Sequence to fold (224 residues):
Amino acid sequence: NAGVTQTPKFRVLKTGQSMTLLCAQDMNHEYMYWYRQDPGMGLRLIHYSVGEGTTAKGEVPDGYNVSRLKKQNFLLGLESAAPSQTSVYFCASSHDRAQETQYFGPGTRLLVL
Amino acid sequence: GQQVMQIPQYQHVQEGEDFTTYCNSSTTLSNIQWYKQRPGGHPVFLIQLVKSGEVKKQKRLTFQFGEAKKNSSLHITATQTTDVGTYFCAGSGAAGNKLTFGGGTRVLVKP
Fold:
């Protein structure tokens, strides 16, 4: 049981480039989330999904898109990266509601130059 | 929208001493969760509180949920070097679709 995995672990982008971060969970969880973590800002919710084929905006959705085509995968896309998107990105999942325990992946460190 | 604030932002503690970190929400919460993140790691779930006035203990850690369900605290007794990390509280409203995290309290332990 791998839990929640994220790829890649680290990436450097130039301004304007695009990329996709992949999150996968093998716990059959319904809910999945993407957060970004910046120094002193805690964890801020970017987008989340309450089930396969559904997505919703979180606190800081601008500049990001997501897709949940399969229950076990949640993809986060940056269409045109900006230096302000330099951050550590965490994916998380929970069984059926946010009120349940959230299990986090190891994170992706993204540097946008 | 819902806001969750944590104080202090940083806590320097002498090994063996006690300390408390506080969490305050702008709205009434249906539950509150606490997570710990070790340096370089990812957040790991510690505990969930649901009932008004609820108190739960995990060894040297004591968690409390306020009577109005708008605040919470984490008290650590006899701090050890293994307690180093950032402690986050996170709350959800009635809808329960998402958690709002506080900014975290970063704990540094002086041996």
User: Anything to note?
Assistant: The mean pLDDT of chain B is 94. Chain B touches chain A through 25 residues (CB under 8 Å). The two ends of chain B are 41 Å apart (CA to CA). The CA atoms of residues 36 and 42 of chain B lie 8 Å apart.
